Structures are given as structure tokens and as C-alpha cells.
Automatic annotation (TrEMBL):
<protein>
    <submittedName>
        <fullName>Leader peptidase family protein</fullName>
    </submittedName>
</protein>
<feature type="domain" description="Prepilin type IV endopeptidase peptidase">
    <location>
        <begin position="17"/>
        <end position="120"/>
    </location>
</feature>
<feature type="region of interest" description="Disordered">
    <location>
        <begin position="263"/>
        <end position="284"/>
    </location>
</feature>
<keyword id="KW-0472">Membrane</keyword>
<feature type="transmembrane region" description="Helical">
    <location>
        <begin position="12"/>
        <end position="29"/>
    </location>
</feature>
<dbReference type="InterPro" id="IPR000045">
    <property type="entry name" value="Prepilin_IV_endopep_pep"/>
</dbReference>
<dbReference type="InterPro" id="IPR052218">
    <property type="entry name" value="Preflagellin_Peptidase"/>
</dbReference>
<dbReference type="Pfam" id="PF01478">
    <property type="entry name" value="Peptidase_A24"/>
</dbReference>
<keyword id="KW-1003">Cell membrane</keyword>
<feature type="transmembrane region" description="Helical">
    <location>
        <begin position="331"/>
        <end position="353"/>
    </location>
</feature>
<keyword id="KW-1133">Transmembrane helix</keyword>
<feature type="region of interest" description="Disordered">
    <location>
        <begin position="216"/>
        <end position="248"/>
    </location>
</feature>
<feature type="transmembrane region" description="Helical">
    <location>
        <begin position="64"/>
        <end position="87"/>
    </location>
</feature>
<keyword id="KW-0812">Transmembrane</keyword>
<feature type="transmembrane region" description="Helical">
    <location>
        <begin position="128"/>
        <end position="152"/>
    </location>
</feature>
<feature type="transmembrane region" description="Helical">
    <location>
        <begin position="36"/>
        <end position="58"/>
    </location>
</feature>
<dbReference type="GO" id="GO:0004190">
    <property type="term" value="F:aspartic-type endopeptidase activity"/>
</dbReference>
């Protein structure tokens, strides 16, 4: 069917990006990790098509050359540095930045596809702006719709809290199998709680399971119980492997049985108790949970986690039966949807402004 489409060969080859972006979007949801190697062939394809289109435009006429050169220069000279800056300041993950860089190479100029009497994209937008910027803008709009959907979901369940647009409550036993962040501390709600990947890094590092954290919080708060030779913390991925217990036996992180309770069962607020309430023993340690020792011994920052963040999150997880958490927004999903919308409809933001 593609051979019958009135489109240039480079534009048809650009459609190869769609299944790849669909796949990495699924990976982003399931694991929050995308192999770096996936971007190499797409980047090479984008560079080759860029050279192909450039040669065709250059040998055509001045208008065609200008129509190619201006958006391409904007795409490579603005969108690529923008992706790098977002990554540098923590607004993007590494995969998000690489995906946007690849899109800047693959879609500098608005492509054109036709099926029967239909021409896609349906709206052209500003031909001087790069098409990659339209994809990014569409992705941002899709991403902004996610908090609205979460807020409605919680409202329908009778949960009216300041953080309702960001997440939902779930049984604490499900936390080891979730990506995202806690949205509560021992003092109440928060927008920047413990990163769950950092939690898994900590447990693997000290050779403890989530079941032990729940069953023996008083013992694990004592930094004297830290292993003499900690285990590799991994990167916190759910499927990175089980922790090694103190006795040298491998224990599954699934040691706690699933409760079978859905997050919709919970509508109560956090306890908002005093932090000392989480430690019935009343014993004070210089480094509760060994949080500072863990962060000092690993490379990097464990996703920006501070010792206080880790201690507070562990206190919450050790004492609560349900917790508010946010799965975050895996940006490759809105970016993929933004790509689909851009190819099918065009630049939504420019269309609205027009």
C-alpha cells in the first residue's frame, strides 16, 4: 500500500520511526529504560535522509532550497541543543533527549502523505518552523492531559487531595513492583518523595528484602546491621535481580505476597504522624537506616535522593499499609503520541493559535 502513496521516498522511509517509537514507548512504561543502541540506526537514517532531501532541494530551485534550509537549520540548531539542555537540567531522561535528537534529524521539514483525496498532515502550520518542534509541542500537550486524567480518576473515587493530579494510593506491598516516587512523607504529602528505583538500589546494596523492611524496621534502622561487604546496588530496575541476604542466600524481592487489593480501595489520607512515631523503640542513631552510608558508598546520586529523603521514605514504607505514589510521566509515550498526531493532523499548538 505504501508504494501507492503520493509521497517522496525519504518521507516513506521516515515512517519506519513509528514502530520503533511505539516499541520504546512500551519499554518506557514497563521498565523506564531504553537501550541506547536503539537510537543509532534511527539517527543514521535521519542523517542519510537529511542529506538526500538537501541534495534534492539544492538541485531544484532557490525556493525549494530555502524551504528546506530554514526549518532544517532551526531543527538541528535549536531542537538538538534544547534536548541537551533539558537533559542537563534534569527535565529529560537520557532516552528522552536522544529521542528528541533523533526526531530533529528525521523530521526537520514537514513530510507529506496522501491517501485517496486525503493529504496528511491535515494542517500545514508554519512551514518555516521545524516539524520536530511540532512533534515536541504535541507531546507536551499530551503530557499535560495526563494530570487532568489522574485528577478526574481520583475525584470519581472520592479522593480530593492537592496531589490528586499526580498519582493515587496503592497497597504498600505493591511498591517493590512500581516505578515512580512516593507522594507522602511522615509529615504528609510531598511532590518529591523517595524515588522507588533508589529504594530498590538501597535494599539490594544492603542485602535486605522489602519483606524484611516491613517485618524488622527497628533492626534495620540500626546502622550497625549494615553488611561489611555491601552488594552491587544495580540501577534500581525492577528486573535487575533479587538482593543477596546477609547469610549469602539469594532471596526474591517478591517475598511479600500480593494483597490483591486495588488502589481504588483506598481513599483515606496519610497519617501525618510525627516522624518519631515510626520508630517505636525510641532509639536514636547517628545515621538511621544507614542512609548516608549507602549514598556515600555508591557512584552517582541514586536519582537525586538525599539521606533525609531515603530515611523518611523508609519510615513511611515500614509503617503504612497504603501509600500515595506517582508513576511519573514516561515522556516517550507523549512523544510517540505527539508524533502520530503531527503526522496525521499537524501542529496542534499552531493550529489553536491560528
Amino acid at each position: 500500500m505504501l508504494s501507492n502513496l503520493p509521497a517522496s521516498v525519504p518521507d516513506l522511509l521516515r515512517l519506519l520511526a513509528l514502530p520503533v517509537f511505539a516499541w520504546v514507548a512500551v519499554l518506557d512504561v514497563r521498565t523506564r529504560r531504553v537501550p541506547s543502541a536503539v537510537w543509532i540506526p534511527l539517527g543514521a537514517l535521519g542523517a542519510a535522509l537529511l542529506a538526500w532531501d538537501g541534495w534534492v532541494a539544492y538541485t531544484a530551485d532557490l525556493h525549494a532550497w530555502q524551504s528546506f534550509l530554514i526549518p532544517t537549520a532551526f531543527s538541528v540548531g535549536f531542537v538538538v541543543p534544547l534536548a541537551y539542555l533539558f537533559w542537563w537540567f534534569g527535565g529529560f531522561g537520557g532516552a528522552d533527549a536522544k529521542a528528541l535528537l533523533v526526531l530533529a534529524l528525521l523530521f526537520p521539514v514537514t513530510p507529506s502523505y496522501g491517501i485517496g483525496d486525503w493529504a496528511f498532515p491535515l494542517v500545514g502550520g508554519d512551514q518555516l518552523l521545524p516539524f520536530s518542534l511540532a512533534i515536541l509541542g504535541n507531546g507536551v500537550l499530551v503530557g499535560l492531559a495526563i494530570p487532568v486524567a489522574l485528577g478526574l480518576r481520583n475525584a470519581l473515587a472520592g479522593r480530593f487531595t492537592p496531589i490528586a493530579p499526580l498519582g493515587w494510593p496503592t497497597a504498600v506491598d505493591r511498591i517493590p513492583h512500581r516505578h515512580g516516587k512516593l507522594l507522602q512523607t511522615t509529615d504528609g504529602y510531598t511532590l518529591s518523595g523517595l524515588d522507588l528505583d533508589a529504594l530498590r538500589m538501597y535494599l539490594r546494596w544492603r542485602g535486605a528484602t522489602f519483606a524484611e523492611l516491613r517485618a524488622e524496621p527497628d533492626r534495620l534502622r540500626d546502622p550497625e546491621t549494615l553488611p561489611d561487604e555491601p552488594n552491587p546496588p544495580t540501577d534500581g530496575a525492577i528486573d535487575a535481580g533479587p538482593p543477596v541476604a546477609d547469610g549469602g542466600e539469594v532471596e526474591s524481592i517478591d517475598a511479600v505476597e500480593q494483597t490483591g487489593r486495588d488502589e481504588a480501595d483506598f481513599s483515606a489520607e496519610p497519617t501525618n504522624g510525627d516522624p518519631t512515631d515510626a520508630d517505636p523503640s525510641g532509639v536514636e542513631f547517628d545515621d538511621p537506616w544507614g542512609a548516608a552510608a549507602f549514598l556515600d558508598s555508591i557512584e552517582g546520586t541514586a536519582y537525586g535522593t538525599s539521606p533525609d529523603d531515603l530515611r523518611d521514605g523508609l519510615d513511611v514504607l515500614a509503617s503504612e499499609e497504603r501509600v500515595w505514589y506517582s508513576p511519573g510521566t514516561p515522556f516517550l509515550v507523549p512523544l510517540f503520541l505527539g508524533l502520530l498526531v503531527a503526522i496525521g493532523y499537524g501542529d496542534v499548538l499552531i493550529s489553536l493559535m491560528s
